[in-house]
Write a structure and sequence with these properties.
Three copies of one chain form a homotrimer. The first copy, chain A, has 136 residues and is α+β, with helices and mostly antiparallel strands. Chain A has a single domain, classed as Jelly Rolls (Sandwich), CATH 2.60.120. The first copy, chain A, contains three helices and eight strands, in the order E-E-H-E-E-H-H-E-E-E-E. In chain A, the strands form two sheets. In chain A, strands 1-8-3-5-6 form a five-stranded antiparallel beta sheet, covered by helices on one side. In chain A, a hairpin with a 2-residue loop joins strand 5 and strand 6. The first copy, chain A, is elongated and about 50 Å long. Chains in contact: A-B, A-C, B-C.
Chain lengths: 136, 136, 136
C-alpha cells in the first residue's frame, strides 16, 4: 500500500467564495503514481467545505443564495464568544466536510460533470485543504 | 491490498425516485473476496445521491416532501443555461454524494436498520453508480 | 495493509445530545499502530450522526435550534408506523452519517479546531459507533 499526503493553501478575496480544485487534485493523484485506490479531500477548518458538483457559475450563485435562506442571519449563541461566523459553521454543515473519490487506472474515476470544489465561508485569511491518496 | 471496481446502472421511471441498492452492494463485496476494508459507493452524476437510512416507505415519502420545502421552486440562475434541474443539484446536496462503509469479516459492517439507497433527482435517463471495494 | 475495528457505545441521558468523541478516536488510532491511512467513524444507527466541527457549547445550542427550524414538527408519514422519530432521521441527514479522517505519522491529521462529535437524535437507549482504521 502506498500513500501520499499533500496540503493545498487558500486565501480567498471574499469571505464566501467557491474555488474549483479539480486540476490540483488530479495532479496530486498523478504524482502519487497510485493506480487503484482512493483520495480523501477535506478542509482542515470547520468553516469550509469540499464538495463535488457542477462547474457552472449560475449554480454557484444559486448555492450562495440558497445557503443564506437555510442559514438566516440571527443572534447565534456561538457569536457570544466574540466570533461572528456561526453562519459559516452551519453553511459548511449543509455543503459537507469531505469527499472520498475512487482512483481507477491512475485517474479520478469521475462522471462527465463531476468537479471538486473548495467552498469557503469565512475566508480572507490563510486556510488549508488536506489531500490523502491511498492505494497501490 | 486488493480492489474491485464495479458500475451499476439505473434508469428510473420517475424523475425523483429512491432505489434500495443494499443487495447489489452486498453482492459486489462478496465477489471482491475482501474480508477487511471499505467500500465507497457514489453516483457518477451531480443530480443524484447515495445515502444510508431506513427502508420504510413512509420515511421515503417524508424525505421527498421535506426536500421540496428545503428546495422551493423558484427561478434558479442555473436554469438560465437551458437546464430545469437546479433543484436536483440542491436536493442531492442535502442528501449527500457518497457513503463509505466498513467491511468486516467479508460483510458490510452494518447496524440492524442501515440500508443503502440511490436517490435520483433527475431521472428517466441512464445513470451510473460507482462501487469501489478496497482492502484485504 | 493493517486494519483495526472497534465499537464504542452510548446511552445518552437526553433524546438529543452531542458528545465529543475525539479522544476515544485518537486512542483507537494509537492502538492500531497504523502510521499512514484513514479512519472511518459512523453510527450503526439511522437516527444519529458523526460529524466534525467546533467544541463550543454555544455552537452546539445553535445546531439544536437550527435543526428544529429545518425539521419542523409535523405529522410525518414515518410516524404512522408507530414510531415518533421521523425528525431524528431528517436531522441525521442534515448532519451527515460518517466521517473519514486521514492518519499521518500515526495521528489524526487535523487542523486546530477540528473535533469529532457523535450527535444523537433519538437517544436514551443503547447505541453503537463503528471505528475502522485502515492503513500501514
Amino acid at each position: 500500500m502506498k500513500t501520499l499526503t499533500k496540503y493545498i493553501y487558500f486565501n480567498t478575496k471574499n469571505r464566501i467564495e467557491f474555488v474549483n480544485i479539480t486540476n490540483q487534485i488530479e495532479e496530486i493523484v498523478s504524482e502519487s503514481k497510485i493506480k487503484e485506490g482512493i483520495v480523501l479531500v477535506n478542509p482542515m477548518h470547520i468553516t469550509a467545505s469540499v464538495y463535488i458538483n457542477d462547474a457552472e457559475s449560475g449554480l454557484i450563485e444559486d448555492y450562495k443564495e440558497w445557503l443564506k435562506k437555510l442559514v438566516p442571519e440571527k443572534d447565534y449563541k456561538h457569536n457570544l464568544t466574540g466570533e461572528d461566523n456561526a453562519f459559516s459553521h452551519l453553511m459548511r454543515t449543509i455543503m459537507g466536510r469531505e469527499v472520498t473519490i475512487a482512483i481507477t487506472n491512475g485517474k479520478l474515476d469521475f462522471g462527465t460533470w463531476e468537479q471538486i470544489y473548495y467552498a469557503e465561508f469565512d475566508g480572507q485569511r490563510k486556510k488549508r485543504v488536506l489531500v490523502k491518496v491511498l492505494g497501490e
